[in-house]
Amino acid sequence: MGKILAIDYGVKRIGLAVTDDMKMIAFGLTTVSTTEVFAFLSDYITKEKVELIVVGEPKQMDNTASESEMYIKPFLKKLEEQFPTVPIKRHDERFTSKMAFKTMLDSGLKKKQRKNKALIDEISATIILQDFLKTL
Protein backbone atom coordinates (compact mmCIF):
# COMPACT_ATOMS: atom_id res chain seq x y z
CA MET A 1 0.00 0.00 0.00
CA GLY A 2 1.13 3.51 -0.72
CA LYS A 3 0.76 6.83 0.97
CA ILE A 4 -1.18 9.94 0.08
CA LEU A 5 0.78 13.18 -0.06
CA ALA A 6 -0.96 16.53 0.47
CA ILE A 7 0.27 19.90 -0.74
CA ASP A 8 -0.72 23.30 0.63
CA TYR A 9 0.65 25.53 -2.14
CA GLY A 10 1.95 28.99 -1.39
CA VAL A 11 3.90 31.46 -3.50
CA LYS A 12 6.87 31.35 -1.08
CA ARG A 13 6.41 28.08 0.82
CA ILE A 14 4.65 24.78 0.34
CA GLY A 15 3.35 22.78 3.28
CA LEU A 16 3.45 19.01 2.91
CA ALA A 17 1.68 16.24 4.78
CA VAL A 18 1.52 12.49 4.30
CA THR A 19 -0.61 9.57 5.46
CA ASP A 20 0.47 6.40 7.13
CA ASP A 21 0.55 3.32 4.88
CA MET A 22 -3.01 2.39 5.84
CA LYS A 23 -4.24 5.88 4.90
CA MET A 24 -5.92 6.45 8.25
CA ILE A 25 -3.89 9.28 9.78
CA ALA A 26 -2.34 12.42 8.29
CA PHE A 27 1.03 13.65 9.55
CA GLY A 28 2.82 16.90 8.87
CA LEU A 29 5.86 16.15 6.71
CA THR A 30 7.66 19.47 6.26
CA THR A 31 7.54 22.85 4.58
CA VAL A 32 9.79 23.59 1.61
CA SER A 33 10.39 26.70 -0.43
CA THR A 34 8.51 26.86 -3.71
CA THR A 35 11.80 26.91 -5.61
CA GLU A 36 12.94 23.63 -4.01
CA VAL A 37 9.68 21.69 -3.97
CA PHE A 38 10.21 19.60 -7.11
CA ALA A 39 13.66 18.44 -6.01
CA PHE A 40 12.21 17.51 -2.62
CA LEU A 41 9.21 15.71 -4.13
CA SER A 42 11.38 13.78 -6.61
CA ASP A 43 13.55 12.53 -3.78
CA TYR A 44 10.59 11.74 -1.51
CA ILE A 45 8.50 9.97 -4.15
CA THR A 46 11.55 7.91 -5.18
CA LYS A 47 12.03 6.71 -1.59
CA GLU A 48 8.39 6.35 -0.51
CA LYS A 49 5.45 4.76 -2.31
CA VAL A 50 3.12 7.69 -3.00
CA GLU A 51 -0.04 6.57 -4.77
CA LEU A 52 -1.93 9.87 -4.76
CA ILE A 53 -1.17 13.58 -4.45
CA VAL A 54 -3.85 15.88 -3.01
CA VAL A 55 -3.43 19.58 -3.73
CA GLY A 56 -5.37 22.15 -1.76
CA GLU A 57 -7.95 24.06 -3.78
CA PRO A 58 -8.46 27.62 -2.55
CA LYS A 59 -12.03 28.78 -3.06
CA GLN A 60 -14.05 31.86 -2.23
CA MET A 61 -17.13 31.55 -0.05
CA ASP A 62 -19.31 31.53 -3.19
CA ASN A 63 -17.39 28.44 -4.40
CA THR A 64 -15.49 30.29 -7.14
CA ALA A 65 -11.72 29.95 -7.48
CA SER A 66 -9.66 32.30 -5.34
CA GLU A 67 -7.05 34.65 -6.77
CA SER A 68 -4.21 32.32 -5.76
CA GLU A 69 -5.53 29.65 -8.15
CA MET A 70 -3.66 31.40 -11.00
CA TYR A 71 -0.37 30.47 -9.28
CA ILE A 72 -1.45 26.91 -8.62
CA LYS A 73 -2.39 26.07 -12.24
CA PRO A 74 1.23 26.20 -13.58
CA PHE A 75 2.39 24.29 -10.49
CA LEU A 76 -0.20 21.56 -11.17
CA LYS A 77 0.88 21.31 -14.80
CA LYS A 78 4.51 20.82 -13.81
CA LEU A 79 3.48 18.34 -11.10
CA GLU A 80 1.58 16.27 -13.69
CA GLU A 81 4.54 16.38 -16.08
CA GLN A 82 7.12 15.42 -13.47
CA PHE A 83 5.05 12.63 -11.85
CA PRO A 84 2.86 11.25 -14.66
CA THR A 85 2.17 7.95 -12.87
CA VAL A 86 0.86 9.55 -9.67
CA PRO A 87 -2.78 10.71 -9.82
CA ILE A 88 -3.54 14.21 -8.54
CA LYS A 89 -6.76 15.28 -6.86
CA ARG A 90 -7.87 18.66 -5.55
CA HIS A 91 -9.48 19.26 -2.17
CA ASP A 92 -11.16 22.36 -0.76
CA GLU A 93 -8.79 24.20 1.54
CA ARG A 94 -11.06 26.95 2.81
CA PHE A 95 -10.30 27.96 6.42
CA THR A 96 -7.29 25.63 6.76
CA SER A 97 -4.92 28.45 7.76
CA LYS A 98 -7.36 29.60 10.46
CA MET A 99 -7.82 26.01 11.61
CA ALA A 100 -4.03 25.55 11.69
CA PHE A 101 -3.62 28.64 13.85
CA LYS A 102 -6.36 27.43 16.21
CA THR A 103 -4.64 24.03 16.41
CA MET A 104 -1.43 25.79 17.38
CA LEU A 105 -3.27 27.77 20.07
CA ASP A 106 -5.02 24.67 21.40
CA SER A 107 -1.76 22.75 21.59
CA GLY A 108 -0.24 25.44 23.79
CA LEU A 109 2.44 26.73 21.43
CA LYS A 110 4.03 29.97 22.51
CA LYS A 111 3.37 33.17 20.58
CA LYS A 112 6.77 33.05 18.85
CA GLN A 113 6.10 29.50 17.61
CA ARG A 114 2.63 30.49 16.38
CA LYS A 115 4.23 33.14 14.14
CA ASN A 116 6.19 30.42 12.33
CA LYS A 117 4.54 30.55 8.89
CA ALA A 118 6.27 27.36 7.76
CA LEU A 119 4.64 25.49 10.64
CA ILE A 120 1.25 26.97 9.73
CA ASP A 121 1.70 25.74 6.14
CA GLU A 122 2.63 22.24 7.30
CA ILE A 123 -0.33 22.06 9.67
CA SER A 124 -2.61 23.38 6.91
CA ALA A 125 -1.45 20.57 4.60
CA THR A 126 -2.16 18.09 7.40
CA ILE A 127 -5.68 19.48 7.85
CA ILE A 128 -6.32 19.31 4.08
CA LEU A 129 -5.17 15.69 4.05
CA GLN A 130 -7.09 14.65 7.16
CA ASP A 131 -10.24 16.23 5.70
CA PHE A 132 -9.61 14.45 2.38
CA LEU A 133 -9.30 11.11 4.18
CA LYS A 134 -12.87 11.54 5.45
CA THR A 135 -14.07 11.37 1.84
CA LEU A 136 -12.53 7.94 1.19
Automatic annotation (TrEMBL):
UniProt-listed Pfam families: RuvX
Annotated localization: Cytoplasm
Top-level taxon of origin: Bacteria
BP-aspect Gene Ontology terms: rRNA 5'-end processing
EC number: 3.1.-.-
The entry's keywords: ATP-binding, Cytoplasm, Helicase, Hydrolase, Nuclease, Nucleotide-binding, Ribosome biogenesis
Gene3D superfamilies in UniProt: YqgF/RNase H-like domain
Cellular component terms per the entry's GO annotation: cytosol
One MF annotation (Gene Ontology) recorded for this entry: nuclease activity
YqgF/RNase H-like domain segment(s): 2-100
Similarity comment: family membership: Belongs to the YqgF HJR family.
Function: Could be a nuclease involved in processing of the 5'-end of pre-16S rRNA.
The name this protein goes by in its record: Putative pre-16S rRNA nuclease
